[in-house]
């Protein structure tokens, strides 16, 4: 290394933001691992998993013609097996739109453009049910993050958001989920914050909820300003979380305490 | 890192922080704030109540301590038992006001600071986590924790 290159390298190292260390691949754990045997059984056994009700509603609307086009999802996509692996790859970069799109947005794009129907509202029963039904088809499959050229920028933006301190408590996502996972925050065990179970049934919510809802909960806990529900920040965080979770098995719809 | 921050604080000698109107002016000396933020001493009983309250103090999210009535305590931070033996009131006061001056990477929130934060929820903008009187109550309580036996 020449002197100048060395100095440049030292400077770069000094100027690089002090990012928390990411979790090594071999230590990646689903939130499932820290759950009680009862909660695990609830997730594993479809007849006990409360999210099954949402999946069944999603299945019914998959076959129901909707909108001015009077078409069902099944009219374009065939049966549910066509959705195998889809949720494990989302969010993905949509080259035509020039931006990343998550599963919920994709469902609404199909509703508006193909079915000529009104989009489902975020966190509505209809959208959660359809998302749960689609994600259910990827259960057990490994997460395959989008590696398309356009995706990298959003992943980097998500990582920036993940490691930035925010809110009155001045915490970053990484300080809890990279640096302190496995420890106890009050009574709650801090998970790694893996996205592999969404949408999922949370006992505390008494309902199925989306990844957005989870992110908004954590942001509120940090006393941080919430982005509007349709903000690109959620998709960026989701996309980073999926890249960070590469290879982890999908569990949707999972159960969490 | 902690040492570097300490040296900066020492070199600066006296650091004043009071950007928002609500914050009282305070003076950092060495690694402590010797004078009460309010000019009066705090009330340890009220301080204890703040420490165990999950919405006000939030302390037990991260810390454990001698609080038998509190079932859920955290383990992200040192046990508070013995804090009053390890630190003087001045040192405890600075640790409450702004622990980041001692360790910029700490996860302990600055309880009496309103600047240098980003994306604060609207309801909390310009407000410290605890006000000056609450800080003094907590400091008075922590100073009573002389017994170092963890739970």
Please characterize this protein's 3D structure.
The complex is a heterodimer of chains A (257) and B (151). Chain A folds into 2 domains: 123 residues, Cytochrome Bc1 Complex, Chain D, domain 2, CATH 1.10.760; 85 residues, Cytochrome c-like domain (Cytochrome Bc1 Complex, Chain D, domain 2, Orthogonal Bundle), CATH 1.10.760.10. Helices cover 40% and strands 7% of the residues of chain A. Chain A contains 10 helices and 7 strands. Chain A has a 3-stranded mixed β-sheet with strand order 6-5-7. In chain A, helix 3 crosses helix 6. The longest helix of chain A is centred in the first third of the chain and has 13 residues. Chain A starts with a helix and ends with a strand. About 6% of the residues of chain A have low confidence. With 151 residues, chain B is an all-alpha fold. Chain B has a single domain, classed as Cytochrome c-like domain (Cytochrome Bc1 Complex, Chain D, domain 2, Orthogonal Bundle), CATH 1.10.760. Chain B contains 6 helices and 2 strands, in the order αββααααα. Chain B has a two-stranded antiparallel sheet. In chain B, helix 2 crosses helix 6 and helix 5 crosses helix 6. Chain B starts with a helix and ends in an 8-residue tail after the last helix. At the A-B interface, strand 3 of A face helix 3 of B.
